[in-house]
Design brief:
homodimer, about 400 residues, alpha/beta, Aspartate Aminotransferase, domain 1, Aspartate Aminotransferase, domain 2, 2 domains, seven-stranded mixed sheet, 12 strands, about 40% helix, about 15% strand
Chain lengths: ~400, ~400
């Protein structure tokens, strides 16, 4: 048999999806698996998007322009304008989700064996996109014990080498909920300019920023026109992850022209996803406000519940819809598997995303899990009870010196 | 400004789409541009697919399984069974069009700087997929003067090196219309086994085989379970290119498991594309037969018309819906640009895909163009008149020793 590629072997299993076979098995045994592993909201898709799909009036479902439908790109300009982001439609390439926007940006900005800096923990698939484009991820670590505050900017600078091509930030951050302050962004900008790097800013959770934090887009930073790439997606905003409609936005024409060649190769984004995405941008204020309030309420609920479980620590995220929690276990992946394979409580169990997959280095995140609060509070309550009981029965439970008191006290 | 990547610079502009800006300009001047450049059929999408979209009854447009919806995969098993191809649903990974299936296969089978053999002329985007995965395309040339008969199998063997990881064939071939004979496929199989290579067979035009030729799938060849990868797409079959629903099919479990990791990274294929694709597989025999007859009739019409234009030569394609034609011009790309920039006839002009982009080597295909017969015969007739008049006025016209007589006489 011919051998599989090295990059295929190195490619990680998604920590978000690797336990799916175990969950399927648990389901087949009659257990109800509550899925906290994946950012798949239960919130109804914007009715504007659904109506556009049901009213589709074309006879031929055809390719669109490789850069995306012009009407969608122009509609996104309006959307950005409402968020004080000034771009032209030519600055926007429609991609197949935010995923493709990142992959194409990496292909455009870097060669094999180049390096990209990413604060960790990070959205696990960044590592996958880097592996598939032969780019090396160099992490700047933040820690749950510190509430995931960003390390000093000097830590970024220390890791820059001849091979560094750019920095990826996720703002608000998945999985930590960190929202970048103006000071942090300006420090990152200065480094980007000093070393002539690209700055990729994944802003797909822009709508979900809590506690009065100010959201600042990379496109609002001065002096970065040739360096900044905004990664976007309509998936989370309108609760329509299946659309696969995202965007790569940049003022850098050479970068855009190059990225377009990669877009041409895959012909076009999905037709219906673009039609529905364009309609979704007109979602009502009531819908958007309702979604926001629901996430905020769920966040408050799950963070409180987690911190009430003995031995569990969960800092307050300021944005997005995930929490990272530290568990009193030997290994959070083993625990997550055990919950699916061995555990049930009143017929229920839970599926978690093991934390180590959100870090590069072995060891970091080994006691952590990511939980997505994309299910309703009744379900979250059942899930938290499962977690509490599971932790009390899990054979690998260990007591750790908890950072809970000091961090929570500081709030 | 940070520099663009080498692979971004090397990435070719799609010959199928590179002239789009000139076409847009011609349109803005009021000219009617008849598009022969791209395989975008005017044929209505299967009504089963459209009905499934309009009847969508979900409240949340969610991610599907990264491997695709199980119901779609099972439906494809039925489809393949009708075509005497025996696979299980586990053998099928749903991809975002055939494009993604090829990219993921290259990532799974090869590392940077590895080589892949491809008979040329080939679907131009193979070169793009190879460039984006840092794989080198090694071509085995066939020639329009010979009616694109495949070179002897010894030509394949000569090009195999330590770095060769696989062979890509497109059957029926885009752009030549070549349909691989059993003898050719068995010879390729023997080489694949002898050198332990992967064999990628792009069979998206399976439905469109003419003149009683027999279509044989790579999945029907014995002994290739660990080597064969079927690349498929629902786009052309059901006239629904905007769905972006394709498949990577293989019996090789290790390859599939590795490919699934790349699928997980991009989360899932489009939701609506899968729902509509599943419905499309139940398209009526009347629809499928009607589409077939229409393409057959268009093929006969365009080949005859092309060969009647002085100095033009076009061999008969046996499958798919493209023709390659040799034109009496200095450079077919220059001619194609001239047609958009300088020419009109009764307010019309045509957009062609320059042939050189379907070959690797400089020079080959320079007098050729690819034309897609995906528009109706009335439009084709107007397009052929434009071509005839355009060729008679084009300043770079040259008379070439035509191979027309010998090849056509041999039929």
């Amino acid at each position: 048999m011919p051998r599989i590629s090295k990059r295929g072997t190195l490619m990680p299993n998604s920590p978000i999806r690797k336990l799916v076979p175990l969950a399927e098995e648990a389901t087949s045994k009659g257990r109800n698996v509550i899925r906290l592993n994946i950012g798949q909201p239960d919130i109804p898709t914007s009715d504007k998007a659904l109506a556009a799909i049901r009213n589709l009036d074309t006879k031929v479902l055809e390719y669109s322009h490789s850069a995306g439908m012009e009407s969608l790109r122009r509609k996104m300009v309006e959307y950005y304008k409402r968020h004080n982001i000034g771009v032209n439609y030519e600055d926007i390439l429609i991609t197949i989700g935010g995923s493709e926007a990142i992959t194409i940006t990496l292909l455009t900005c870097s060669n094999g064996d180049d390096e990209i800096l990413v604060p960790e923990p990070f959205y696990a698939n960044y590592y996958s996109f880097a592996t598939s484009t032969d780019v090396n991820v160099v992490a700047i670590s933040s820690h749950i014990e510190d509430g995931f505050v960003l390390p000093p900017i000097s830590e970024f600078e220390k890791k820059i080498t001849e091979k560094t091509r750019g920095i990826i930030i996720c703002n608000p951050n998945n999985p930590t909920g960190h929202v970048y302050s103006r000071k942090e962004l300006e420090q990152i900008r200065d480094i980007v300019l000093k070393y002539d790097l690209f700055l990729l800013s994944d802003e797909v959770y822009r709508e979900f920023v809590y506690d009065g934090e100010e959201f600042i887009s990379v496109m609002q930073l001065e002096g970065l026109d040739q360096h900044a790439i905004l990664i976007d997606s309509l998936s989370k905003r309108y609760s329509a992850t299946g659309l696969r409609t995202g965007a790569l936005v940049t003022k850098n024409k050479q970068l855009r022209d190059t990225a377009l060649k990669f877009c041409q190769a895959r012909l076009s984004p999905p037709y219906v996803g673009q039609i529905a995405g364009e309609a979704a941008i007109d979602s009502s204020k009531e819908y958007m406000d309702g979604v926001y309030e629901e996430y905020l309420s769920r966040r408050n609920f799950i963070v409180k519940a987690l911190n009430e479980i003995p031995g569990v620590f969960c800092p307050y995220p300021k944005g997005a819809f995930y929490v990272m929690a530290k568990l009193p276990v030997d290994d959070a992946e083993k625990f997550s598997m055990w919950m699916l394979e061995e555990f049930e409580y009143n017929g229920n169990t839970i599926m978690l995303a093991p934390g180590a997959g959100f870090y590069t280095e072995g060891g970091l995140g080994r006691q952590e899990v990511r939980l997505a609060y994309v299910i309703n509070k009744e379900q979250i309550a059942i899930a938290m009870k499962c977690l509490e009981v599971g932790l009390s029965k899990y054979p690998g439970r260990i007591e750790t010196a908890s950072a809970k008191k000091s961090v929570l006290a500081a709030k």
